[in-house]
Amino acid sequence: MKFFKHLRASMGLGRSGAAILGARTGSLYSTPTLRASISCPAEAVQRRSRIGGGWRRRFLLTLTLLAGLVSGCQSIERIAAAPTPLWRVKLTVKEDARVDRVAEPVTSGIPIPLSLGIKSANGLRIVRDNKTEVPAQFTVLARWNGTVDDQTKAIQWVLVDFQADVAAGRSAAYYLAYQPDLKTTTPPISVKAVESGGTITVNTGPMQFRISKTSFNLFDGVWLDRNKDGRFDDSEAIISPGSADDGAFLIDTFDAWYGAHLGVKRVVIEENGPLRLVIKVEGRHQRVDQKGLVLGFYDYLTRIHAYAGKSHVKVHHTLKNSPPCSQKLTGYGSCPSPFFGSLAFKDYSIYTTLNLEKPIRQRIFADKRYETTGEPFSLYQDSSGGAHWQQHHGEYWGYDIQTAHDQNAHKELEGGPSFRGFRLNRGEKEVGKGERAQGWTDVYDTRWGVTAQIRHFWQQCPKGIDLEENKLILRLWPSAYQGIHWLDEGVHKTHELLYAFHLNDFNAEETIKKFNSPLLAVAPTSWYNDARVIGPFGDLQTLSAGDASPELPPARSRAGLGNKKTVYAAREPYNAWGWIPFGDIKANPGAAGCPCIDPSSFSFFLQTMERDYFDTAEELARQWMDARSYHRDLTAMADYRGEVPDVTAYQKGTHYQGWMPTDHYHAWYSVLYEYYLLTGNRKALEAAEELTRHERHIGFWWHFIEDKQTFPVERAYGWLAYELTRMYEITGKQIYLDDAERLLKKAYDQIDKRRGNLLDAYLYQPANTGGTTYTGSRLQYDYGATSWELGIALLGIGKYADVVLTQNIQRHFLDGEDARDFLVAGADLLVHEIFRSDIPIFPEDWFLTNPQPSDKELFPYGRHNAIEFQITAGLSIAYRLTGKKAYQDAVNAMLTKWGDKLDPFFQTAFANQHRRDVTPPSAIIDLQAEKGSKAGEVILRWTAPGGDGKAGKAARYQIKYAEKPIVERIDCRSQMSTCYRPCKVEGFNSLCAKEGAQVNFWAAVNVKGEPPPQPSGKAEQFTLKGLKPGKIYYFSIKSEDEARNMSDLSNVAKLSL
Fold first, then answer.
1. Cα dist. 209→307, 318, 501 in Å?
2. Entry pTM
3. Most confidently modeled of 544-548, 619-623, 867-871?
4. Which of 496, 650, 898, 949 is the most exposed place for a label (fewest CB within 10 A)?
């Protein structure tokens, strides 16, 4: 197995002999042929350890494997004779609920590295224990450099659906394989939907249900195949069709009813089997008596998931205060102001009428299981049940009752929770009470029944479950709450519901456990690392649970920090529970709730494979996709008046309490699109696109429309460029990459070409720093922003450069080389002028007027230290794309400073510690420039360098020219007068830019169309055109190898045209 694990991606053997492997060390891509080689003599492993890198290793390793075939390695021969997949990766399905799973649905997103070049899902299949194929369903979630529909592009992520058998508390091994020659296995039972007239009929095998396309009442009939004859008749209907009393209903503060069935707008089949089916319904609640609000009362979005061979469905139901758009703007939608406002209501519940014979029996689980026959239960969770249940609705959230009263006539409706925890009644009698109810019920008669739950019942209080005669009611916003309910403008709220219809041989408790802990299929950490798709730059490391649980005080827990136990403990002092705040992890409201740290929330799960981390990240993602996303396209930019788009209605919302909508200064929502990639949750991707659109409108209005303003600080372009590039990676929509390019091009044009800092940053103005005189040692720090903001800029620049360079994407005016130059500018500024190697630390004072670090800043859990994750990530990607040791040294100093306390958070930094090729090409020392035969032509001549020092050949050249001498780096730190002169700004003593005598290599002009390098020692020649006669030019070259190690600067050639 060790032999297999360490095969390199560049090793490619045919079907007769072995594998197409990934691009990076440690991947588990394989074929049975190569896996069989582990039973051969250990000599193969020993030989590999003595073999060098590159083509020699691949060639000799191939000979070793072929020798094994000839010498009688029987396992290879036997497997090679069978149909062999081109590659496969192990998927581990772990059972965490301590319940046996038999044919249990699994829905998980799995990445596919670009190096494999798989364009169609037709050849994908799932194999159990590397032997038996299992029926599976594959849905493309993302493609490399293209939209999902562009089948000419390679698949980046695929959503895998299959059904797994896993013993309680154990793990099972499955394999995702690519074998296009074989016909896909057909499931014995499929789920399928058929549209006919105004209905969609879904058949799962044991169950059939209908969805009305004209009157959405949730289930317009449900049938169970009691006699197992494969047909459904009226006697098998547990829910009869045609009920206008079923579905979602809203009751306003005037007791008027609004039904979802009256405002259906769109019903579509999003996915249609064979193993999982999704129906999407959109509409608006309309008044039942057709009076009152003609426009209706809030929109809704419902997705119903059904599974082959199963009689249960999962319902994701969203209440929406986000009116639709009617205008268009540069590829993005725009809207007038919302017309809903923050309308209040008393109750919002989902009703289901069941065909049950009396006496109706009921089980309900609160703190324990209760049972009754005849007289039904009523369960109501009023508050969180915690010790602080009465103090807050979250740290920064609260129901502003007075504001709510001012908006509504029924001011006698006082708000807030009225008691601690839950109460359970049977009829009028209280039969139970406690702190936190699990919140599920099973209602049945002698024939059949239904088990239902609102997931995260107590966590999203208030909540309720009622049974009135034969009508099951799931109360998402109960009228029993002593206050009123409302959604602020731009807010959504999604609840996940379970309806498990069953015959009487049924275990309701086990079903609930499965619902709350769905199975996940997870590839090895190295597979995600090879695909480079999770986290800022796709760098993950395998960690133990102990490594990933830093001993942070609960009050300091932030997104991604700590497992579920730690996060839940952190919420308790602030009572951060309830339908609005649940899922948030005590983020800083003053920074748009931006955790602003290096690793994504889901990366902890993929590095540890501990389920708690996934659960915590999922809760965070769902809160962001509902409450933290601003669900309304903004007004057209031409209609704006004032500094920024008007989002005051959102900010002043009564549930808002300090939040601000994410903006281009605080853009962080990777948890959304990564949730989509890992689960296929379309709502998460929709929210990510809404947030991107929102930030794009704000950022582009500010910097490209309103007075052509300059960037005030680095994060103003860093965050937005990062998220725009990530959204391009996931959606393939060119407009995102175009926008990132425009932002970064403007920022690059704005920076000081000597130091890389923003010349016009507002922090650089003395009026904002209390009249700083810029004397003494402070000169080296006062550069216009703080180091952590520059770190954020490097994230955005680095992400763009990484994507464009490594995938060779052609750009308009900021290509990969240009972006890398920009990255080098910021990295050099951090490392050579700001970094304190003697401590070591980056100054973190906001205005940099006091660069000396305090004891608190040096303490590992200091207030600002989390931002250093961004700095190390940015410098690490700069190291990856240049091989400059100075960047690695600075990162290593930071890692040493922190010790092993927060290793998991420096994932990008640690990934670079194992860089395989650290030898750059040798520097060119004989560059010559001479005039060409035509005006403005220059002929450059030099000797080709080696790729690893003087050996081999380089991979690429980067040729530069300028009208000043080119140097590696202008040193402004040692003598500030080299770059600046004293001046007055707004009446204060300050520094102004000074014309320099030299130019940095990164700031010189890039030449396009350089020739591919020849082997070392060969003569090279290149002709430049279009230069201006009569001027003096300077020329220099760097070369790089396949690992992006860059050589030292060549000699500088001077020529007068």
1. 12, 21, 11
2. 0.85
3. 619-623
4. 949
Which neighbouring-strand residues pair with 951?
948
**Predicted pLDDT of residue 918:** 86
The tokens 């069989």 sit on which residue?
A: 36
User: In angstroms, what is the C-alpha Rg of the chain?
Assistant: 31
Answer for the pair 381, 422: CB distance below 8 angstroms, yes or no.
Answer: yes
- Tell me: pLDDT of 105 over 80: yes
Dihedral sign for Cα 657, 660, 666, 669, please. Answer: positive
> Residue 3 and residue 49: Cα distance in Å, rounded?
10
Sequence-separated (6 or more) residues with CB below 8 Å from residue 402: none
CATH code, domain with 483: 2.70.98
Extract the tokens encoding 774: 């810029």
Nearest by Cα to 450 from 557, 311, 325: 311
What are the Cα distances from residue 94, in Å, to 57, 169, 309, 970? Answer: 37, 7, 22, 55
If DSSP codes are grouped into helix, strand and coil, which group holds residue 290? coil
Q: Are residues 76 and 94 in the same domain?
A: no
Side by side, which strands form the sheet with 521-522?
Answer: 132-134, 124-128, 171-178, 87-94, 521-522
Q: Tokens 């139970």 appear where? A: 432
Judged by average pLDDT, the poorest of 246-255, 385-394, 871-880 is 385-394
C-beta separation of 438 from 457 below 8 A: yes
Rounded to whole angstroms, how far apart are CA atoms 142 and 663?
25
Measured in residues, the chain has a length of 1057
Residue 921 falls inside a structural domain: no
- Cα(680)–Cα(533) distance, integer angstroms: 15
Cα separation, 846 vs 867, whole angstroms:
12
639: pLDDT strictly greater than 90: no
Distance from the Cα of residue 416 to its chain's centroid: 34
Give the amino acid at 553: P
- Tell whether 102 and 222 lie within a shared domain: no
- The model's pLDDT over 176-200, given as tens digits with 9 standing for 90+, comes to 999 888 888 899 999 999 999 899 9
Question: For position 408, what pLDDT does the model report?
Answer: 43
Distance between first and last Cα of the chain: 63
564 confidence band (pLDDT: 50, 70, 90) = low
Strand-pair category, 492-503 with 332-334: unpaired
Query: Which of 1004, 967, 972, 595 is closest to 821 using CA atoms?
Result: 1004
d(Cα 802, Cα 542) in Å, to the nearest integer? Answer: 23
CA 839 from centre of chain: 34
Q: Which residues pair with 472 in a beta bridge?
A: 352, 467
Q: Is residue 627 part of a domain?
A: no
